[in-house]
Specification:
This protein has one domain: NAD(P)-binding Rossmann-like Domain (Rossmann fold), CATH 3.40.50.720. The protein is 35% helix and 15% strand. It is globular.
């Protein structure tokens, strides 16, 4: 069976994906933002192949995550799931970047570059990427007035752009069983609830808030949110 690394996998979509893969017999390496977060999911982590710790807002800690993953061994697949949705202000990482840019855009790029290349890469995006600004001017929101919705849309567009660029540069890295589909960006419409345990079915609507580890993904229409991700995960052949 395969070994898969999933960022932001102690809660929400990431945890649900991890559970689905574990149930299929795959080995999963989890990621937690902090040691406290990792300790809080110790029972769940006991079923995983390992857990790495680091805050994606920090470039130093992101590099540390890559080192931890590489120390475990080469992954068969990596799912870049972690992200933030609403940030009340631009914020600032240790390196001075906008918090959302650091987590949603820079961290996946860094991890892709630093972790030993897997057989498959998956980047989770959003249909909101269509509202993203394509220009690279003021990418870090140092001149514009902060707009969380637009910043999020831009970060999801960055995920799509990264996946497309890598599809050209690394044609041997697959994202599905079909050779013509080199990479896959999963587009989902979800509502996030950070106060309940993860579910793969999305029974009730939740509320939106902000946390690095994605919360429970609950659908206004359950058939249109988590179930496509579950079908994608259950259908892939990682061998």
């Amino acid at each position: 069976m395969a070994i898969v690394f999933i960022t932001g996998s102690t809660d929400g979509l990431g945890r649900a994906a991890a559970q689905s893969l574990i149930d299929q017999g795959h080995r999963v390496v989890l990621h937690a933002r902090s040691a406290d977060r990792a300790a809080a999911v110790a029972d769940f982590a006991s079923h995983a192949a390992g857990i790495v710790v680091g805050d994606l807002r920090s470039a130093v800690e992101t590099k540390g995550i890559a080192d931890q993953v590489n120390a475990i061994g080469r992954m068969d697949a990596i799912i870049h799931n972690a992200g933030v949705y609403t940030e009340r202000s631009r914020g600032s990482s240790a390196e001075g970047h906008a918090g959302m840019l650091a987590i949603n855009t820079l961290a996946p790029y860094m991890l892709t570059a630093l972790i030993a290349r897997p057989k498959r890469l998956v980047y989770l995006s959003s249909g909101l990427h269509r509202g993203g600004e394509g220009s690279l001017r003021d990418l870090d929101w140092t001149r514009r007035s902060w707009d969380a919705a637009k910043a999020y849309a831009e970060s999801k567009l960055h995920a799509v752009a990264l996946a497309c660029a890598l599809a050209r540069r690394w044609p041997h890295v697959l994202s599905s069983g079909r050779p013509e589909r080199r990479f896959c960006v999963v587009l989902t419409i979800i509502r996030l609830d950070f106060n309940r345990a993860p579910t793969m079915d999305g029974e009730r609507p939740g509320r939106k808030t902000d946390r690095q580890d994605a919360g429970t993904a609950d659908a206004e229409n359950s058939a249109g949110s988590i179930r496509p991700l579950r079908a994608f995960l259950s259908g892939i052949d990682l061998e």
